[in-house]
Amino acid sequence: MKKTTIITFAVISALFLVSWIAKGMFTEGSSPFLDGFLVTLAAFLTLAIMSFLYKDNPYYKFAEHLFVGVSAAYAMCLGFWSTIVGNLIPRLSSGISEFFKVSYIEGDYNFIYFIPIIFGILLLMRLSPRGGWLSRWPLAFIVGTTAGLNFVRYLRSDFINQVSSTIVPLMIDWQGFGHFFSNLNFSATGQLVMMFSNLVIFIGVTCGIIYFYFSKEHTGWFGRASKIGIWILMITFGASFGYTVMGRISLLVGRITFLFRDWLEIIS
Asked: What sign has the CA pseudo-torsion 258, 260, 265, 268?
């Protein structure tokens, strides 16, 4: 091990102990040193993740592996107690249900629940060198069922709703030019703004579809509409990316607030 690595580890360990003792001495509660340890650990793990901005290092890898391991263990425990204990065992045996202290649910078709048990055992055969082929059957069932259910869900939520949201009237509550100019306003629910919004949706969808139509050469008015479609797509992708970045920025602000408020107590 390099001398620099040893010195860095010693300095970080010393800072951790100093922070732990300081937080334990000035933290109020029934268990101040435990609360101080948890706050210090959370702060150092946050800084370990942020250290990747400098370069890849063992502290970042430790925090990353710890996060992935804890998340996987939490998901496994949650699935066991909510799915197996909460949904499967109450329908299989009254004795096992009594052991786990859950109410037994009687039913005429409880034997069906032995099918997922068999599939689960076959899925674990993936760990066996010789019986790995048996895991393909439950895996194919899971993939096929998930794909079928998600296809119907996405067809309803994305495709059909997208098409229905595109079919909008260009002339909203049209009662003539006199009525239009006498009630002219720039509010979000006003007739002018609503008509302009629907016109933008109509032109944007039409030009976006034209851009993906490759059976005709993009020249003339067709090419100009295709270029408008490119602008519409770029604006859409940019807005989506900006929304994603703002979500990540809010997470960063939350962690920085935690460091300066809960750990260092510089801000209130």
From this structure: negative
Q: Which residues, in sequence order, are CB contacts of 266 under 8 Å at separation 6+?
A: 260
Residue 168, phi then psi, degrees to nearest 5: -120, 150
For 45-93, what is each residue's pLDDT tens digit? 999 999 999 999 999 999 999 999 999 999 999 999 999 999 999 998 8
Give, as one character, the DSSP assignment of residue 85: I
Residue 72 to residue 88: CA distance in whole angstroms: 21
φ, ψ for residue 105 (rounded to 5)? -110, 110
d(Cα 133, Cα 123) in Å, to the nearest integer?
A: 10
Residue 194: count other Cβ atoms within 10 Å of its Cβ: 16
Q: Where are the beta strands (DSSP E) in the chain?
A: none
Question: Encoding tokens for residue 231?
Answer: 């602008």
Amino acid residing at 259: L
Domains of the chain, residue spans: 1-55, 168-263
Report the chain's terminal Cα–Cα distance, integer Å. 42
In this structure, are residues 32 and 44 in contact, taking their beta carbons and an 8 Å threshold?
A: no
Phi, psi of 142 (to 5 degrees): -65, -45
Helix residue ranges, H only, 27-89: 32-50, 58-79
For the entire predicted model, the pTM comes to 0.74
